[in-house]
Amino acid sequence: MRILCLHGFGMNPDIMKRQMSTIRKICDPSWEFHFLAGNIECSPAPGAEAMPGPYLCYTSTFDPASMRAAEALVHAEFEKEGPFDGVFGFSTGASILAAYLLGQRVAQPDKPLPVQFAIFCSAVPIIASDPAYYQAIYGSLSQEEERIIRSGQYDQYLKLPEPIQSAVTVIGNVTDMLKPVLRNSRLFFLDRSPLEIPCPLNPDLYTARLNIPTLHTRATREPPALKESSLAVESFCVPTLRRTFEHSVAHGLPKKLEEIQNMVAAMEEVIGSDRRARL
Fold it and tell me: What are the Serine hydrolase domain coordinates in residue numbering (predicted)?
């Protein structure tokens, strides 16, 4: 059983291995976790400074070109090191994996996905990489709408039409919450030319779905913007095939032994669902 793992922003494979050390000890010894390093250096995530660098990410700007590059990095790993039975991602790593798999679903709708299950931990919004999707959301902005977005003022966003209002509000809320990680304010992401503004996938507009068993983990008291992000990622997964697990660590992996044991049990259930489906 081979599982491709993607770390969060400002981390690296060794840090993720340490975070997952108890998970890896408890889980089935036949599970092989393969870690893909981000290819962009960035500032360390809070708490990561105590561990050796380099500190890495898959994208630091979240514009469409960088998202395509991140997905291409994942695809290259499948080509070079695959096949993989499943994927495991944390935070931005989870969302990039979700974006990659959704892209595969769109590109090859009649073929099975390249993995049989996915585990998404504390996923942030799935950012689009398709220029056509950006064009549909941001391509017809008036000068006034562009001015409002660049202002970074939430009260002004209420004047924007949907789905533009929802898109920029999500980006603003999440980048505000993750400023200690990203080390940039919301204006870094919103004060740009329209087609360079990060564009979260909207499940009401983007119809592709992941038809494999999925596990979605998050904190019971996750900050609202991050909980909404995790729920949005769930929306792109078939309801009858998805499972949710909550724990006590905000935007992190569980640390209490009982919670780790319960998470591994949830992982086993999701992986078992895939195996039963193939019998």
Answer: 1-262
Q: What are phi and psi of 56, to 5 degrees?
A: -130, 160
Q: How buried is 99 (Cβ within 10 angstroms: 0-12 exposed, 13-18 middle, 19+ buried)? A: buried
Q: Answer whether 186's CB lies under 8 Å from 156's CB.
A: no
Closest CA to 6 of 115, 108, 106: 115
Pairing mode of beta strands 56-57, 40-41 = antiparallel
pLDDT mean across residues, the chain: 96
CA 132 to chain CA mean position, Å: 21
Q: Which of 76, 65, 53 is nearest to 7 (CA)?
A: 53
pLDDT tens column, 20-63: 999 999 999 999 999 999 999 999 999 999 999 999 999 999 99
Give the residue from 195, 272, 218 showing the smallest Cα distance to 241.
272
Integer Cα distance of 90 and 112 in angstroms: 24
Beta-strand (E) ranges in the chain? 2-6, 32-36, 40-41, 56-57, 86-90, 117-121, 214-219, 242-247
Q: Is the pTM of this model over 0.90?
A: yes
Asked if pLDDT for residue 279 goes beyond 50, the answer is no
Q: Which two tokens stand for residue 29?
A: 């010894």
- The answer to whether residues 122 and 91 touch, using CB atoms and an 8 Å cutoff, is yes
DSSP 166: H
